[in-house]
Specification:
By secondary structure, the chain is mostly helical. It contains five helices and two strands. It has a two-stranded antiparallel ribbon with strand order 1-2. A hairpin with a 2-residue loop joins strand 1 and strand 2.
Amino acid sequence: NTTLCHSFIMGDIPKGNAKKGAKIFKARCAQCHTVKKGDAHKTGPNLYGLYGRQSGQAEGYSYSAANVEKGVVWEEGTLFEYLLDPKAYIPGTKMVFAGLKKPKERADLVAYIKKTTSSG
C-alpha cells in the first residue's frame, strides 16, 4: 500500500501488535489518557472515538488552539507520525509527551489505539 500519509508511506509503517501496544499505553499514556467510553478526561482527553476523528474534537476537553486548528484526521499514518514527536507535529500542543522514537513501538501503540478507540 503506497497511500501517502504526510511524510510516511503506509508501507513504511511496521505492522503493529495491539497487545504489545496495550503495555506501551499503560506505561507511557495511561497517566494522562483513558480509552474507555464514558470515562472522564484526565490531564489529556479521553481517547475513545479518536481513531477516524479530527484533532481537537473530544467533547468537553479544553484543547490548545494549535490542536484544534491542525485539523488532522487521526488514522494509522497521522498517529504514527504524531507519536514520533507530538510537539513538532502540532507546535503549540499542550501534550508534554516527548514521543516514541522506535518505529515498532509506535506501530504497536497505533494498533492498540485503533483497536480500542474506534467508536464503530
